[in-house]
Amino acid sequence: MNEAIRPGSGTPPQAQEAPELSVIVPTFNERDNVTVLYRRLEATLANVAWEVVFVDDNSPDGTWDVVRALAQRDNRVRCVRRIGRRGLSGACIEGILASSAPYVAVIDADLQHDETQLPKMLLLLASDQADLVVGSRYIEGYKSEGFNKQRAGASALATELARKALRVEIADPMSGFFMVRRDRFEELAPKLSVHGFKILLDLVASANGGLRAVEIPYTFGERQHGESKLDSMVALDFLGLVLAKFTNDAVSLRFILFAMVGGIGLVVHLTTLFIALQLFKAPFAEAQAAGAVVAMTSNFVLNNFLTYRDQRLKGFALLRGLIAFYIVCSVGLLANVGVAFSVYDQEPIWWLAGMAGALMGVVWNYAMSGLFVWRKK
Question: CB-based contacts of 145: which residues, under 8 Å, 6+ apart?
Fold first, then answer.
């Protein structure tokens, strides 16, 4: 007869040394880099109890599979594979909250950040000289081997805008290489946006000057494999984050991005309305309806590419999503045309009437889009 297993019976497995440092690495199509980065961390952190958490956005190149193979050989390696979610900030937040060490570093998988600075960053935090240590590109001692002039100029402009608009004190709030105390991060985590690419800017702005920050220089290396995660819409993404923090998170980053896309749609709407009225001599109601349909189509495409990039629709789902977008916005369209026609009837100023009608459906479109078009599975 088998003896019942009671709590405390038997010999517990040997306890492993708890990690002092967790390194969070967001990845997307980085299968050729993750093993190299792991080996570099192993060499650099030889005297530190550490773990590395790769947070992979279901990379088509199978990055997650390479990480899983590493994890089978070394239990300091972990893989968080995200399905149906995209975005650097969200990946960093999930990775940090899934880790266990009192100090947490964020580093890119593209091998451009200087992992040899991690022990120095850890010492500054562990000795209570700082709550946050940033690898900075804008202080003396920084060197660049892989930052082209165009990207450097754009980064400098964005940095200056962020510092002035949000009164951020650190020199490089756009850096993707930093280390922070876990307890301070968890205090601020509920205020952070899971959308976008600039987690450090969000972190510092949300702290409102409450983080003791130290910046250190490092060498920015050349990308070895893969491609940059940044695309042409990151500028709008960045502006959305700045506006969200500027309003003290009164509205969400996603709503601001949706509204920014709506602003572009308004231009499309008014342009179409003008062409229909002036070139095709269409009656106002029909011209307004045409403008609304064209604007809705452009808004859907831009929102799919930017606002809901973490839930981006592809293939047949794209067509199905467009149809759903038309359906859920139909009530807003009817209100749009009705309000615009009423305004035009009172005061025949085409652009004023068009704007009044277009603005009528913004909140409805946003609410219904999240529920029925880009709903999370």
Answer: 219, 220, 221, 222
Greatest distance between any 2 Cα atoms in the chain: 93
CA distances from 235 to 49, 158, 164, 196, 198 (A): 38, 9, 17, 10, 11
Q: Per-residue pLDDT tens for 286-299?
A: 998 899 889 889 99
CA-nearest of 88, 54, 30, 374 to 237 is: 88
- DSSP letter, residue 173: T
Can you tell me the distance from the alpha carbon of 164 to that of 262, in angstroms, rounded to the nearest whole number? 26
Where is 302: in which H helix or E strand? Answer: helix 284-302
Residue 144: per-residue pLDDT: 64
Please give the torsion angle defined by the CA atoms of residues 238, 239, 240 and 244, in that order, rounded to the nearest 10 degrees: 110
Q: How far, in Å, CA of 364 to CA of 301, rounded?
A: 18
The pair of structure tokens assigned to 376 is: 């999370």
Closest CA to 361 of 288, 310, 275: 288
What does the pLDDT look like over 318-376, one tens digit per residue? 999 999 998 888 777 777 778 888 888 887 888 888 888 777 777 778 888 988 999 86
CA atoms of 359 and 202, how far apart (whole Å): 29
Return the sign of the alpha-carbon dihedral for residues 141, 88, 17, 34.
Answer: negative
User: 68-126 pLDDT, tens per residue?
Assistant: 999 999 999 999 999 878 788 999 999 999 999 999 999 999 999 999 999 999 999 99
Q: Which of 203, 217, 218, 201 is nearest to 163 (CA)?
A: 201
The DSSP secondary-structure symbol of 361 reads T
